[in-house]
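[Q] Does anyone have a clean structure-token version of this?
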Amino acid sequence: MKVQKTRPRKVSTLHVGDIEAREVFTHCMQCGHTNRSDELCSLVAPGSNFGYDVMVYAAKALFLRHRNEAEVVAELAQRNVQISLREVSLLGMKFVTYLAIAHQRCAPRITTDMRTRGGYICHLDATCEGRDPLLMSSIDSLSEIVLGNVMLPGEDENHIAPFLKRIKKTYGIPLALVHDMGGGILKAIATVFPNVPDFICHFHFLRDLGKDFLGAEYDTIRKQLRKHGISGKLRSRAKYFKTDLDRYPELIEALESSIESASLPAEARQFMPLLNVYALIQWTLKGKSEGHGYGFPFDHPHLVFAKRIRCLHGKAEKLQPLQLRGDWKDNKPYFKIFWDLNKIMKDKTLWKAVAAIEEKITVFEKLRGAMRIAPNSGHYGLNDEGQKGNIRTIEKRVKKFRAQLVRRKDYPQNPATQKMIEQIDKYWAKLFADPITVQTPSGSAQIQPQRTNNILEQFFRSLKRSNRRRTGNASSSRMLRTMLAETPLVRNLQNPQYMKILLNGKTSIEEVFAEIEINTFREAFQGAQETPEKIPHKLKPLIAMADFPEKLLNMLKKSVV
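[A] Here you go.
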């Protein structure tokens, strides 16, 4: 080996700080191979000014502690590392690429580890915002390891199938799959995993079924409330009353004590109608936020709001003749709110929809109870995993519900109920999973697939919360457009078993990254930044036409001057 060249480099690391390194390159005259400094390469990647430890620190701060770039710059400055905002963002992207390569290389060890539990259950789901690309992820619910991710331009079979084939090639055939009711996922799974048990998430099933069953009436209620602009009217009236109430702060204390004792002080009687109406308006408006955090169709805030409007109107009518001081002028607030609501109370379309949906909700609640999902008494909202219970018992309860619904006299004339039964029958085999018997090194065992896909739903929500914390922006659109597809792999770093597999005897993740060849990294980094092509929404129906080329040609011919 002969010295080929020397090159000075300025490198920043956490454990040393700024280094003025002089790297010596040696060259073999016989084979042409060039050697670099192993010691320097263990600290920093070729061509980089920041050590692996700086990259890991920045990435963990960004993705695990949800710090923004400015906060990371400030933290690194306290450790004598000077870095720009852009460089922090770039280090985060490099970290994801290194992790993706390391994850791919340790896939055989992950597969071996999953086999010790009998295999893996593949949960699939995708998230998107507007017309942005979809981020699809796969997680094994037994080990809670993120297996793979991909950015897709659309949730259809042609795009999902290659991702599933990659999962199959890397980890083998799963014990079962759990996902939502997306048509693209269903078709892709049937193609790639034709004989694998395939289950629908109970929460997604009940939610989609409920939206179909209750959607028409609920949309009418929402539309009619918006048509009357009733929220704005109530808030305006409350604001007007609040101006007068601010002059008498002791009134609220008088109301609070009087509610319990049912005895009203004489000095508070003149202004009590004003406070009563203000409190009733606020109670009515609060109906718009009522629910258990599940969202529609489990929660019905607009229905609650409409019913409280009706209650407010009725109470105002009953309170009008009650003169606390014998002076009808004191009761002007009752008259004002009564006439504010008079028009909406005459809206037959609204109240017909309210009556219809209340009858349907009774039916839906029975199915909800039979499936023991998203309970009214739950406190976990969208994180609810469903009440524990034997899957066969749940199946019997749903079967009983189905039989009762079909026997109803109005069933033959009720298209919505018939459609509900059709949906239940269509997905019956994918809803009720028998425990899967597997062979493990310690003997046979039974595994019950989870009834919900919440493991992925929670994961996506945490990803969006992280983005809100870092950017202050409630929209995840920009994040999904710019993030690398394999970013969700960072979640695995919080899994001790995964870290043990990834490190494979090494002391740190920096050592794992240092073993990755620079050319391998550069090729992967370039490929990772390629985003899937998103076909414009309005163009899709055009290219779906079988005779689109002919129509396009005819249109152009007619346009020629």
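[Q] Thanks! Anything notable?
[A] Residues 202-228 form the longest helix (27 residues).
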